[in-house]
Amino acid sequence: MKEISQPSIQPKDLKPAEILCLDDDEWFLRLLVKKFQSVDPSFKITTAMSVDEALDYLKEQSYDCILCDHKLPGTINIHGKVFPSDGIHVMRKFKDELEIDTPFIFVTGQGSEEIASQALQLGAAGYFIKRVQPGYYSLMATSIRQIIDRYWLQRELKESEFRYKDLFENATGLIFIFDTKGNLQESNQNFYTMFGYKEEEKLAYTQIAHTADFDKWQNMIDSIILGNNQIQLLRAVTKDNTVLHLDINARPLWDKRQKTIIGIQAIARDISDQVKTQQALIDSEEKHRKIVEGSIDGIIFLDTQGGVIDWNPAATIITGIDQNDAVGKKIEEIIQSLKPSQINDPESVEVDPSVIRKEYEKLFASEADLQTPKMIEFSLENIKTCKRHLIETVGFIVEHSKGNRVAIVMRDVTERRNAEAESRSFAQRFQILIEQTAIGVWVTDLTETTTYVNESVAQILGYSKREIIGASVLDFASPESAEIIKSKTKSRFAQKTVNDTYELHFFHRNGKIITTLVTAAAIYDEKGNLQETYGLIRDVTDEREREQELKRTKEYLESIIASMPAGVYSYDLDQKITMANPRLADILQYTSEKELIGRSIYDLFPSREHTRVENFVKERMTGQRSKEYIPLNYLTRKGEEVTTSVTSIPLVIDEKVEGAVVTVSDLTEQRQIEEYVHKISHEYRVLLEKLPGGILKINTLGQIVTYNEKAAELLNFIDVVDLGTLNLLEYHPFKEAGITEKFRNLLYQKTDEEVIVAEIIDNLGKKHLLKFHFFPVKDQYMENLSWFLVVNKPD
Length: 795
Hints:
Blueprint: E1 17-22, H1 26-39, E2 43-48, H2 51-60, E3 65-69, E4 71-78, E5 81-86, H3 87-98, E6 104-108, H4 113-121, E7 126-129, H5 136-170, E8 174-179, E9 184-187, H6 189-195, H7 205-208, H8 214-225, E10 230-237, E11 243-254, E12 261-270, H9 272-294, E13 298-302, E14 308-311, H10 313-319, H11 323-326, H12 331-337, H13 354-365, H14 367-370, E15 374-381, E16 388-398, E17 405-412, H15 414-436, E18 440-444, E19 450-453, H16 455-461, H17 465-468, H18 479-493, E20 499-507, E21 513-524, E22 530-539, H19 541-563, E23 567-571, E24 577-580, H20 582-587, H21 610-621, E25 630-635, E26 641-653, E27 656-666, H22 667-690, E28 694-698, E29 704-707, H23 709-716, H24 732-737, H25 740-749, E30 754-761, E31 767-778, E32 785-792
Parallel strand pairs: 1-2, 1-3, 3-6, 6-7
Antiparallel strand pairs: 4-5, 8-9, 8-12, 10-11, 11-12, 13-14, 13-17, 15-16, 16-17, 18-19, 18-22, 20-21, 21-22, 23-24, 23-27, 25-26, 26-27, 28-29, 28-32, 30-31, 31-32
């Protein structure tokens, strides 16, 4: 149940008051509203007939007063406990659960001094008995208005006190109070934070005053105690001796009657940063003055009317006008005296400076125009040297404590312009050089599209420059090289690769693959973004083919050396073995030739041979070759001596002796062979003589090693020859008969036995029909093939 009065007229001196009335007697509530409204129309009354209904109203809005029946039906729950619904417990529930300080007034039908006393002790603001006497409710309304006014006053005092306390504690500056002796009585938290002390520490001004300003602190306090307000800039020190600059506004603190000064109250502001900034500005102005004086550019300061205020030494050097002669004059007057001319024609006849003067006048038109620097270029004549200079000037506004100024910076660009001209000439020469160089130059953009190639690239690929420019470099590359190019570009985007060299394969117009060596360079802008890629292209196809041929030749020579029947090794200038073939390892009984690499050659000889070996080394270092095989003893891996026959030659590289190559033949094995040959030679010859037909033993070169008499008889009647020196491959009658090539094929191809029948013409022109029977024989020790040729007349 809710009844709220809305009076049409409210007294100007009465502030509307919100009142909540809680009573289970509806008739009484209506009576109360009627009576109160007649006495005080400013009352806005809300009625509730139950505790729960009243709670709902209190949760929705705040009230200035609560009237509650002391006896309500039922019970209420407070913090889990059940109590009777009397006024005291209702007040307790409202204040505890809602945390309100609203004045609480009890109304009861049966008065009791004991209940009234208890209610007032527990915090009730009043206690009224329900009566019907005339004028009672008017008195009751007046009392309630007084209670509400007192509540409002207390609340305002609390809020004012809270605001003051909040302002006091949260002020960005320092707030503090000293007694008349300078002892700290009270301060905000910022004071303790700034000075680094704790609240429980007792402080006085003597602990925070800077020694250099101690007397100023004392004088300020003395003056305030005499009744004077003070504003001072004083230095203070923190607990850790940090110096603070304080702007202090202090005044006397009077007692309540304003008759006696009981202390000093002050507000202070830390201006340390401002002091530092001010000092920095002073230092900056001094530094800027030195910069201006020492600048190589002419610097002129003007007022906004174009009058010269300052003129640095560099401006004097450029113009020839002294500072004293320039200051106070108008800038256009000075420009006119310098005979200005157009920048693009510095040697022209003097021109009217009005054009240049108008450009300067734009600078002085308004400060808005001065916000954007303006560039003016012209040539002038130095009034002292009479030499003309190309001048580049820029004007802009400069803020100054004495008013805005215009700064004009003059730069002599004569040498720079001359250098630019030379640079353009150089660029033209460089362009010609690029076009004529044998090295290809290829430029691509971010998408691998060709933006430039020189003539060499066109010649390498067999296309015209017009056909290449605009096409993707990937169109000319092999698939493998295209992937390399993509990877390199990706790396350049990530700035992981700037310059590098690698090999790429391109397709010539005729389909041939061209091998090139590419040195690429990435070009980035000032923000680090990739702009272009420059590539220097060199055709190395022929070089790579020669390298492959050299590689094959090297492998071929290595295979020959590895298969030689004699041991071969080389050594360097330090007599260290650099190469050895397997045969040498066999002779010296090493597991592998690799065991010999890096060893000193002296390790291979018994000590008695070292002197001879040293002499051989000296001969090789002078470029001499061995004239014959020299017997020399080597040591095997087991330390046993091996008799060998040695020959060596200098190892010459680029006409410089870098070591020697040595050939080693094992004489131990050779002597065994010689003994064997000597042993069987007699038996062999007897056997040959007894065999029917002519018998010749031939080596793989076609030379006759031995023969019988029948062979000599058969061949001599054809043409008298010395069989001991005869080479069948060079024998003229055999050539005429056309069987020489057949013999050669049989010897070289190492085929099985073969029978050839041929007609041979002797030296008298007579024809003889002969049968030649070839068959191979392998020697027991040398493991080389020999051939037997049996010559007979056909049956």
